[in-house]
Amino acid sequence: MTDRHHLLVHGGTFAAVGDGGDISGVRGGGSGSPDGLFVRDARHLSRWQLTVDGAVPEALSPVRAGDTARCVLVPRGGRQEPPAYTFFREQAVTEGAFVESLRVTSNRPAPTTVRIAVTADADFTDQFELRSDHRTYSKAGAVRSRQVLDDGVEFSYQRGEWRSGTRVTSEPAPDGVEETGTGARRLVWTLDLEPHGSAELSLRVAARPHGAAHPAEVPASPADASARLLALEGEFLGGVPFPTGWPELAAACARGLSDLAALQVPATGPDGEELRVPAAGAPWFLTLLGRDALLTSLFALPYRPQLAAATLPALAATQATEVGVGSVAQPGKIVHEVRHGELAHFGQVPFGRYYGSVDATPLFLVLLGAYVEQTGDVALARRLEPNARAAVGWMLDHGGLTSRGYLVYRADGGGLANQNWKDSPGAICSADGSRATGAVTAAGAQGYAYDALRRTAQLARTVWGDEVYAALLEQAAGDLRDRFQRDFWMPEQGFPALALDGEGRQVDALASDAGHLLWSGLLDKEYGEMVGRRLLEPDFFSGWGVRTLAADQAAYHPLSYHRGSVWPHDNALITLGLARYGLHDEARTVAHALVDAATAAGHRLPEVLAGYGRDTHAEPVPYPHACVRESRSAAAPLALLTAVGGA
Questions:
Q1: d(CA 309, CA 27)
Q2: Which one of 225, 299, 337, 426 is CB 3.0 to 4.6 Å from 354, fit for a cystine?
Q3: Where do the DSSP E strands lie in 329-487?
C-alpha cells in the first residue's frame, strides 16, 4: 500500500485505512492503492468515514503500523479555539470481520451535545477490478441492495448464483440511518456529554463472502481481536531457538513468525479437512500461491513443520487432473494461484485455479522429501504418494524433461508471460535487455527439478518400497545435471545462463537465479564455488543483499521488479546455497546484509527492495509497489538462521 494507507491483516481478511481510520473508497491507479475491508478477494467495506457535527475531524495522532489501528482525532480549529472534543479511535480485523471502538471525550466544563456520523458502504468490487491496469469487466444482472436494521444496516450483492453481504451494527444502536444519494448509508448518533464526560460507540462489521463455509465470528472489541491475534502469534513464536548472540536476527525471526501467524488463510485438504496455509502476501495476494507457500514452508520447516504439513495436502487437493486451456492445467501439475472472487467464479479472470508455474510442481516434491527427512512423518508421504508420482509424471511428460531435456514453459497470453519466480514480462532477458522468445527453459527451475527427482527417489526407496522407480528417478537426475552443465555454463563469464530460449540459445544475463542452483545442489563443486564468490562481487551485492541482475549490464535497473532489485527470499535461498557449498563467510555476509535491512525497517523484511547500493545510500530504499507483508520474506530470517546459525 502507499504511505497514506495502513494495513490490518488477519487470515484471509485485510483492511487498509487512512491516517484517521477512514476508508474513502478510492479505486487505485494514479491516486494510489485502494482502501477498504477485503475478504476473499472482494471489497466488503468501501466507505467508512467519520464526521463530527457535519465535518471531518483531523488526525492529532495518526494511525501507526500495528495489529490494531489507533489514532486520536479532533475537530478542526486553531489556537484561539481549542477543540471541543477528542476522539480516540481503535480498529482491528479478524477473519471476515472489522471492529471499531470510538470514544469521544468532551473538553468543555459544561454539558454539551455532539452529533457523530459514520458513512458506510460496501461495493463488493473484485480485487482485480481495483488494480492499476484499468481493465473493466461486464457484470450483467448484478444488483446491490441495502436494508436498515434496528442496530445498523446490511448491504447485499447478487449476480446470478453469486451472493455476498456486509452487516454493520453498533452498540448503542444509531439514532437513525440516513440515505446519502450515493448508495452509501449514514449511521448517526446524538450524544449528550457531561462536563469533561465521555461516551463510547462499538461498531462491528461482519462480511458474508460468497462460498464462505462459516459466518464471521465478530469479536466484541478491537482489544478482543488483538488478543486473538496475539495468542496465535504466541503459538508461532513458542519454542523457536532464537540466537542469543545475534539479537537483530532473533528480532527479525520473531517479527517474521508474527507476520506468518497473521498470514494463515483457510484451505481444504484432499479429504475435505480444513487447513490453514501461508498466504503469499498482503494486500494483493492474501491467498494460496503454490510457489510462495512451498518456499515459505521450506524456510520454516526446521522450526514450524506444521506449515508444510498443511501446505502439502492443500496443494495435493488442488493438483490438476486434466488439461485446461485457460487455466494452463495439465495432469499432475501443482497450482500456481487460487482465487475466490467473483471474476474468477465467472471465468472472467483465469485465476480461480491457475497453473501458470513451471516450478511449483518440483518444489512440491522438494518440500515433501524435506518434510519427511525433517520430521520422520512417513504417513504423509504414503498418503500423498499418488500426488507425488503424478507430479513426477508431469515433469517428465508435459513439463518437458523427457522430450526437451528440461522443464520448459511458453508465455500464456491470458495469464503470465514468464512462469518461473521472476514472472514479470521482461524478467527473463539477455544482458542487453532483450527478452527471451519461444519456449523458455529457466535455470532455477532445472535446479528444483534435479532436487525433486533426488528427494522423490529417496521416498520411493525408503517409504514406498519401489527400488525400480527410485533408480529411474536417480538416473533422470544425473542426466539432467550433466545436460545442464553442458548447455547452460558460460565459460567466458564463469557463470550459468539465466535461461535458454526457444532455439536453445543461452539467455546470457548474469542473474541471482544462479544462487538457487547452489541451494538445489545442481552444480559441481568447482562451478558452485565460482558462482558463489561471483555473487558477492560489487555489481551483484548491493550491501543489502544480492541483486536479481548484476548492475554492470544494460538490462539492469535498480527499481525494476526483477531486473536489479533485491528480494529477501531470493537471498535466503542464495544463503542456504552458499552454506551448502561450504562458502560460510559469503553466507554470513549475505545474512548480515539482510538482517541489517530488516533492522532498518522495524525488523520486518519487505517483499522486495530497490537495488541501490549501500555505499551510495546508507538506508535500504523501498521498492515502490512491494507487498507490505509477504510470507516468503517473513520466513527468510528463519532460513538465515538455518544457514549460518547465530553467527
A1: 38
A2: 337
A3: 337-338, 353-354, 441-442
Contact 52, 85 (CB under 8 A): yes
Calpha distance 97→12 (Å, rounded): 10
pLDDT of res. 4:
65
Residue 498's contacts (CB-CB under 8 Å, 6 or more residues apart) are 428, 429, 442, 443, 507, 508, 509, 510, 511, 513
Q: Are 511 and 563 in contact (CB under 8 A)?
A: no
Q: CATH 1.50.10.10: which residues of the chain?
A: 272-508
CATH for 272-508, options being 1.50.10.10, 3.40.50.2300, 3.30.230.10, 3.30.565.10: 1.50.10.10
SS3 track for 557-569: CCCCCCCCCECHH
The CA distances from residue 553 to 185, 215, 635, in Å, are 56, 54, 31
Other CB atoms within 10 A of residue 135 CB: 11
* Mean pLDDT in residue range 341-360: 94
How far apart are the C-alpha atoms of 406 and 384, rounded to whole Å?
25
- For 586-636, what is the HEC assignment? HHHHHHHHHHHHHHCCCCCCCCCECCCCCCCCCCCCECCCCCCEEHHHHHH
Q: What distances in angstroms separate CA 512 from CA 55, 182, 548, one per listed residue?
A: 53, 51, 5
Task: Specify the DSSP element, H or E, that contains 310.
Answer: helix 306-317
382 touches 463 (CB < 8 A): yes
CA–CA gap between residue 560 and residue 424 (Å, rounded)? 10
Q: Grade residue 627 by pLDDT with cuts at 50, 70 and 90.
A: confident
pLDDT the model gives residue 30: 41
At the top level of CATH, the class of 4-217 is: mainly beta
The alpha-helical segments, DSSP class H, found in 463-567 are 467-487, 513-520, 525-534
Residue 148 main-chain phi, psi, to 5 deg: -75, 135
Question: 3-state DSSP call for residue 249?
Answer: helix
